[in-house]
Amino acid sequence: MKYSTHLKTRFAAAAAAVIYSLPSTLPAGDATIYDIIVYGDSSGAVTAAIEAKRRGLSVILVNPTAFPGGMSSSGLGATDFLGRRNTFGGIASEFYDAVAAAYGQKFVRSFEPYVGLEIFKKLINDAAVRVDYNELLDREKGVKMDGKRIDSITTHSGKTYRGKMFIDATYVGDLMAAAGVSYTVGREAESQYREDLAGVRRGDTNPRVHYAQRDKDHFIKEVDPYVIPGDPDSGLLPRVFKVEGLTNGQGDRKIQAFNYRVCLTSDPALRIPIGKPEGYREIDHELLLRNFDAGDMRMPALIEPLAGTGSKVDWNNMHAVGSDHPSANWDYPEASYEKRREIEKLHEIYIRGFLWTMSNSPRVPTELRKKASTYGLPKDEFTDNGGWPWMIYIREARRMVGDYVMNQHDCMGERMAPDPVALGSFGMDSHCVQHIVTDKGKVQNEGVIWRVPPRPYGISYRSIIPKKGECENLFTPICLSASHVAHGSIRMEPVFMALSQSAAIAASLAIKNKVSVQDVAYPRLLENLLFAKQIVSLSGIPKTDKSIPVSKSDTHDTR
């Protein structure tokens, strides 16, 4: 508690002022041609820009949001290590080492959002990276092409940025799409890449559900889906679908659920009570309450303690009905900015309503209700937003389709990329995609997958660049070329940081050698990756790091 108080004193002003503390505008008529332009709202956007600056290149980070660090400073405080902290190095390792040092530790598995925010700010300032905040790409006419190369990007504010190389480090792939690069949204069919986790996954009929995860994010009790129980003519509850002919392995354009990774506190001095939100409808939470009525007494949340105070937690979705809002996000990847704000607000109302219901409804089991009611939003986090996280948790959106598509076979070690630029290790994971009505007339969650790779695996360089013949000066390390299944494993924040740093290194070589991103020589790239302390192979993993505890995440999904 004493150390956390010290942190609060040290970081409070900076956390509140970070949005305004860095350069934010280009002078009128600025003719600068940057070596590298990073457009992004993620943690990877920060590492890419820092790496470019350290290599002596001119770089600007054009951020569509008002803060740096993406989810790693917007609530995702329970870090995505899966017990394998030693599978990434470089700037990602610097970030997590700085997090641990802020708490006076060698290793921590979690951190408070404002601590992550302040560390990103310090890394940016130490590297003297210029950041322009609140600059949204004009997706309709803001990308100017010169043949197969991006010449410039223009934002809605009217600012134009010219560059030699571009890195799309957004969670949604807006620059990639506007540049005409091939991409996909949704789930491939089983047959496309021969993945037995691909496409539709009906938890009620799938014999291949991982033996240890048969109740992961699934209903374990029979729950009626109709507005009037037992009466199909009364209609289905909100966000429940009856889909004829739905079988395992079918492909579609649906994506796994989003939520907000809310940071909550049980400290009375910090706690902002969570009231019933405007727009609350009890029927939106009827599925949750019926699941309790049916006898499922599990806490529908993964509550991870955060380092520091002993009172803060990262509240995440868990089990049949939690803080995820399945199907409400299907339009998000390609939606307009205005539509995305509507979807985000819909999620906020739902999750606030979920938390209020958990704390107040007499239909919630007494012990669970008591526990939920101890939590509220923290006064010292997201201070300009009432304690609510700035960013929705975008688990997947667009995914590029490149010459190398990472898939389940890479994750399982059945195929090995010859040109790795980072390692992945997390389980192939998808949260619920939709609530469906089973053949028995009950509710089930569809789309849930979870399988842990046997060992860390390499992520191909070709998966972060467009296919040959498409854009020649663009990297896409976040919305990379991966199947839905593989992306579920790759999509961890430390991996995004590592991939984005590798993208900046490759961009520097493309500039130096005056070649396209597709023609960067991998042997030379590998030398530079290793010099930057990136870990790209099993042989590069430190074998003597005793600071890495085995986590329950090794056998249970936490994301």
Distance between the termini: 27 Å
Q: State the oligomer.
A: single chain
Beta-strand portion reads: 15-25%
SS class? alpha/beta
Count the E strands: 23
Tell me the number of helical segments per DSSP (H or I, 4 or more residues long): 13
Uncertain spans, ≥5 residues at pLDDT below 50? 1-29, 546-558
Q: Per CATH, which architecture of the domain at 2-23 and 31-186 and 453-554?
A: 3-Layer(bba) Sandwich
Shape estimate: globular
CATH secondary-structure class of the domain at 2-23 and 31-186 and 453-554: Alpha Beta
CATH superfamily of the domain at 2-23 and 31-186 and 453-554: FAD/NAD(P)-binding domain
Question: Could you give a short description of this structure?
Answer:
26% of the residues lie in helices and 16% in strands.
Walkthrough of the structure:
The protein is an alpha/beta fold. It has a domain at 2-23 and 31-186 and 453-554: FAD/NAD(P)-binding domain (3-Layer(bba) Sandwich). The protein has 13 helices and 23 strands. The protein has helices spanning 2-17, 43-54, 90-102, 113-127, 174-178, 190-193, 286-293, 337-360, 366-373, 408-411, 484-490, 493-513, 522-531; strands spanning 33-39, 59-62, 130-132, 143-146, 149-154, 160-168, 183-184, 226-228, 231-236, 240-241, 262-265, 271-272, 301-305, 312-317, 377-378, 399-400, 420-424, 428-430, 434-437, 443-446, 449-451, 457-460, 474-475. Strands 1, 2, 3, 4, 5, 6 and 23 form a seven-stranded mixed sheet that branches. A three-stranded mixed sheet has the order 10-19-20, with no helix packed on it. The longest helix has 24 residues, at 337-360. Mean pLDDT is 91; it is low at 1-29 and 546-558.
